[in-house]
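Subject: for your reference before the review

Hello V.,

The reviewers asked for a structural picture of the protein, and I figured it would be easier to keep everything in one thread rather than splitting it across files. Below is the amino acid sequence we used in the manuscript, unchanged from the supplementary table.
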Amino acid sequence: MDTVDLQKLATRTRYMRETSVALLVSVGLLVVFLFIPLKTQNVSSEPTVIVATSTIPNAFAQIPLEAKAAIVYDLAFGTTLYEKNADAQLPLASLTKLLTVYAALTELAPHTPITISTEATHLDGPHAFTKGQTFTLSDLARLTLVASLNDGAAAIALETAARKNVSPQQALAGTAAALSLSQTYAVNGNGLDVNPAISGGYGSAHDLARLAGALLKKAPDIASATTQDFAQAASLAGTIFKVKNTDPIVGTIPRLLLSKTGFTDLAGGNLVLVFDAGIQHPIAVVVLGSSMKARFTDGSALVAATIAHFAGVQSL
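And here is what came back from the structure prediction:
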């Protein structure tokens, strides 16, 4: 082998040796990166929680109610906007008449004649009729609810019970059950206290809101009469009766759809209002266990708060 060939062989051998060394170094560095962890920052594994806070003011936050129980109930959506002991069972007084009228309308046609009985005329006031006077159910219901007439309510309850061949108490219980009013029952059709310990009717603010909504839907013409200062109707014999509304604030509630008052010694002051908060958006306001005067200020305050609520402001 000549000298030139020997030099080429030596050069090739040196190149292969250098290449092998470089390859080994590269493999070593790769091993270092694969098996020795890089230093990282200490990152918490706790999830980031974003707390959303509402900027909409609570219009009901500062209402000083005298009532033992109250509710503002959205009848359009079946939701509660405000409540205070809304499911507590309390004496209803004349709010019981709402159940009496609704029970009659589920059993009798609006033009059904209702005659005032002797039993009905023996009740305490308010009353307006005498034995034997006859009215259509619709007219008698309007007069009865507007002026909270105990004789009218008793006559309606008796006629409804007779048609169903049950007692008035059973007829009213059946209606409450049909509406799923779990806290509501009536001892009589007018709501008068039976004695110093027993009320004529019991129910919750939640139940009464739903009952008022049901009556408004079934008989809007009768409900509308309760929003006026006076109601007038004639007996079938032609005698004209004009009665004054027991609710003095009907003229102050915007878009009022229904109103009913109640007061006895056991119940205290009660009030039901239904008003339209928008286009066909009925809202029921119920006050139970207030005083004779404060039921109206309680009710007005809740109506004002409801309007403010929908306007998105703290108060009007």
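For the response letter, the relevant points are probably these. The mean pLDDT is 87. Residues 69-311 form a domain with the Beta-lactamase fold (CATH 3.40.710.10).

Happy to draft the paragraph if you're swamped.

O.
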